[in-house]
Amino acid sequence: MRPRSLDEFVGQEHLVGPGKPLRTQIERDDTGSLIFWGPPGTGKTTLAKIIAHVTKADFIEFSAVLAGIKEIKQVMADAERARQYGTRTIVFIDEIHRFNKAQQDAFLPHVEKGNIRLIGATTENPSFEIISALLSRSRVYVLKPLTEDQIVTLLRRALSDDERGLGAVKLQASDEVLQKIAAYSSGDARSAYNVLEVAASLARSHSGKEAGAEITDEIVRDALQKRVLLYDKAGEEHYNLISALHKSVRNSDPDAALYWLGRMLEAGEDPLYIARRVVRMAVEDIGLADPNALSLCMAARDAVDFIGMPEGNLALAQAVVYLSVAPKSNALYTAYSDVQQDVERTAAEPVPLHLRNAPTGLMKGLGYGQGYKYAHDVEGKVADMQCLPDNLRDRVYYHPTREGVEKSIRERIEEIKRMRSRPGTGSERNKGES
Q1: CB 23 within 8 A of CB 6
Q2: Average pLDDT, the chain
Q3: How far apart are the C-alpha atoms of 78 and 89, rounded to whole Å?
């Protein structure tokens, strides 16, 4: 089922969609040497073969696991001779990051001379795994995991293709069944095809007939060799599980939090959705009791985005355990809820004159900025000055707890109150500072 042309290729629209950089280079026969960096099953080998076909070049495929210097030198010599007869050679190296420095160096002179076009495929960061001399002579393209919808498209195509797929046996499979296979493939088309092939064999075996069998949920579970978790990203179970995760974190139960996190991730939930919700937990349930919680959760979000899955699972696990054992406070959450209610009720309240900006003489004449007290001129940097509208002058929104860092914040607020009540804590300026 490997696509034979760009029109058959699914995914990577940011590279091979109409007018996109790689497609344009392929159509112009101007690709040069390339490095494809991306997860397994995203089309790296397929793209290399399509480029060879479109550009009418000989295609030689290496595996970095098996090839040695001797084989490399022989292929390079053959490519140099072929070039003399007007034949171009594309050398494709799968898992190029497994080649050591000496092996990678062996390609350099031939890339520079134009004897070969090198296309390397890697699942590792090229900046760390490929020598700089080779990297500087290549364009690096990043391939993304296929979406579930894209994988379902490929599976449906495989079921209907008489020539290369399973079309001849007329298998039936619902969209829900194909979606389950896609969810477990983690963006890897090869993995999805393998599961479909096993499921097709099981379906025909269970039905006792060669054609017209149906691939059911049960058959997919057998093919996957693991229980399909009860999960619907768009339905009630989605919200039940994220609720269970949030409430376990709030109740300082790291074991339960890890379990519910695992339930969601192993069922194929979008890890960035979970990361967003974990950030929300940090500000809603921990807040200033541990200001580092938000920073750690943002770092976990960035880690998931940077290294992808499944490696990103541990970053999320670290975040939910940290949140679970952190001191808890919803003081900011309740404070802002109270603010929202008051804002809705008092949205027309004017800003007190002494807090207004006064950039013009007219504004100063109208009293803008008059009576403003400059805190830096006061001992302790706290002026006895009203900063809320008159009808909210004594309103208190934020009530810090005695948990974690908020205990210190609470003490500081008490100190500020005492300083504000001292006589002479005011230094009026009528300069219209903002």
Answers
A1: yes
A2: 83
A3: 9
Q: pLDDT tens, 377-413?
A: 778 888 888 888 888 888 888 888 898 888 888 888 8
Query: In the numeric block, which tokens belong to residue 119?
Result: 């296309």
Please name the residues in contact with 2: beta carbons below 8 A apart, sequence gap of 6 or more: 45, 46, 49
Report CA-CA distances (Å) from 204 to 6, 167, 170, 209.
Answer: 33, 13, 10, 6
What residue ranges do the domains of the chain occupy?
A: 13-142, 148-224, 236-325, 350-429
pLDDT at 207 over 80: no
Going by C-alpha positions, the residue among 262, 318, 317, 330 that lies closest to residue 290 is: 330
Nearest to 146, CA basis, from 52, 264, 259, 15: 15
Q: Is the peptide bond before 310 cis (omega within 30 degrees of 0)?
A: yes
Q: What is the mean pLDDT of the segment spanning 348-356?
A: 81
**CATH code for the part of the protein at 13-142:** 3.40.50.300
Task: For the domain made up of 148-224, give the CATH fold.
Answer: Helicase, Ruva Protein; domain 3 (1.10.8)
Q: Which residue has the tokens 């750690």?
A: 296
Q: Domain 350-429 classified CATH 1.10.10?
A: no
Q: Spelled out in words, what is the top-level CATH class assigned to the domain 236-325?
A: mainly alpha
